[in-house]
Specification:
- With 441 residues, the protein is mainly α.
- Among the domains are: 59 residues, 434 Repressor (Amino-terminal Domain) (Orthogonal Bundle); 68 residues, no CATH class.
- 75% of the residues lie in helices and 1% in strands.
- The protein contains 23 helices and 2 strands.
- The chain has a two-stranded antiparallel ribbon with strand order 1-2.
- α7 runs antiparallel to α8, α10 packs antiparallel against α11 and α11 runs antiparallel to α12.
- The protein is elongated.
């Protein structure tokens, strides 16, 4: 018995939007385009409407006729390009900027040949995040301007990543209310589609934490921890940045809402992991000790807090932000435990270091509050320090030092001013905190 050889046509799925974009960009009608590649107009219409599949002969004809060797015409090719784009994003999120820099030129070339506006927008969004993280301000601003011009083309997913960019920028500028507004907008888009990852929920938690919403921040830090899947996403490697900082901020916020036992359990496990790593990272170990100190300070166990702050100083480099934050909290703890002179030595050491505006005003506020003794120092606190605390969105500290001013006035018999400062503390707490939950938190 002889069997005939049946040669079946092999079909593939053309990504219909890409096909339409190629045709329109080249300036052809559906009829002319069909003639050039040797198929019927009805076939092109059906392909562009996503109603039919194409043979590989049609795909090859499109490539050959219009010299589109590298264009991702099929859905499989487009998905591979999108996977490469999201790998680029994961390298940025992970902090592997060297890898991101290596990937960027090839991706840019592939995206330009894709004839896909949607893919181009994803690339521009992720490239903008790369410029932001690598402090390339000029390129960042240029990309943001270009993205803003194309907002009408954004899909929901594009908007999600765009809102994240805005939130990161506003958070860095201490405009927490605007940052939170963008995070909420992104989260609303994410509720059904679940695009959010560790970095998104970590960022939202940080914003809420810095605004003083410890309970709500803990919810998002827990969510970030639950979604922690960096080992699966990025070359099966742990993400040290999010591992240490995520556990640290979760523990700190838990301690603020009375969950100190759980906070300490999280930190002990994290410290064990960080110390046990091959090529252990001293900055991460130092950050964990810093958080231990802050948690013990919240429980008023000042001796243990000071021990941990001292341990942190052994690991943190003096150039790091964490070193200066640790020094401030050590000074605060010494002063709270009545070791005034030692606390002021820490403050003076901090003020001699290169500080950003936020840390500088914190050290200055702490020093002035301790040395508050006459009308001149009272006026300096009121006229210089308090406006800066509010300008930099340091609301918890503004409340704290308003109460210090109130107590000082009361001790000196100026009850009218004491009441005024007490009311100021209440206004800051109620107006500048609570009005920010109107976004749906």
């Amino acid at each position: 018995m002889e069997f005939g050889v049946i040669v079946a046509e092999v079909y593939t799925v053309i990504y219909y939007k890409t096909l339409a974009n190629i045709r329109k960009n080249l300036g052809y009608s559906q009829e002319d385009f069909a003639k050039l590649i040797g198929c019927s107009t009805d076939k092109i219409i059906a392909l562009e409407c996503n109603e039919e599949q194409a043979t590989y002969d049609i795909v090859d004809a499109i490539r050959a006729k219009f010299n589109l060797k590298n264009a991702p015409i099929t859905e499989t090719e487009r998905n591979l390009l999108l996977n490469s784009l999201f790998y680029f994003k994961s390298a940025i999120d992970y902090g592997d900027y060297k890898k991101a820099a290596e990937l960027k030129p090839g991706l840019e070339k592939s995206v330009k040949s894709s004839y896909s506006p949607s893919t181009e927008i994803f690339y521009d969004l992720f490239a903008t995040a790369y410029y932001w993280q690598t402090h390339n301000t000029k390129a960042y601003e240029e990309n943001m301007t270009a993205l803003n011009r194309r907002k009408s083309e954004f899909s929901a997913r594009h908007h999600f990543y765009y809102y994240r960019l805005i939130a990161a920028r506003e958070f860095a500028a201490y405009r927490y209310d605007k940052a939170l507004e963008s995070y909420i907008a992104a989260e609303k888009l994410d509720k059904d589609t679940k695009w959010g990852d560790v970095g998104f929920y970590y960022g939202l938690g940080r914003c809420l934490s810095d605004m003083g919403f410890a309970k709500r921040a803990s919810v998002y830090f827990r969510k970030a921890k639950h979604l922690s899947k960096w080992q699966k996403i990025y070359e099966d490697r742990p993400n040290r940045f999010y591992d240490a900082e995520l556990d640290g901020y979760l523990a700190y916020n838990l301690s603020k809402i009375g969950e100190s036992n759980e906070a300490l359990e999280i930190l002990y496990k994290r410290l064990e992991k960080e110390i046990g790593r091959v090529n252990a990272n001293n900055e991460d170990i130092g950050f964990v000790y810093l958080t231990f100190g802050r948690v013990y300070r919240n429980t008023k166990d000042y001796d243990t807090a000071l021990y941990n702050f001292d341990e942190a100083l052994q690991y943190l480099s003096e150039e790091s932000e964490s070193y200066k934050v640790n020094l401030y909290h050590k000074a605060l703890t010494l002063i709270d435990s009545s070791n005034i002179s030692e606390g002021l030595l820490c403050v003076d050491k901090g003020l001699r270091m290169p500080l950003n505006d936020t840390n500088k005003v914190l050290f200055e506020a702490l020093k002035c509050s301790v040395l508050l003794s006459d009308s001149e120092s009272l006026e300096y606190m009121e006229r210089t320090i308090m406006p800066k605390l509010l300008e930099y969105k340091l609301y918890e500290e503004a409340v704290k030092y308003s109460k210090v001013l109130s107590d000082f006035c009361a001790e000196n018999g100026d009850y009218e001013s004491a009441l005024e400062y007490s009311n100021t503390a209440l206004e800051i707490k109620e107006q500048l905190y609570e009005e920010r939950v109107e976004g749906g938190l």
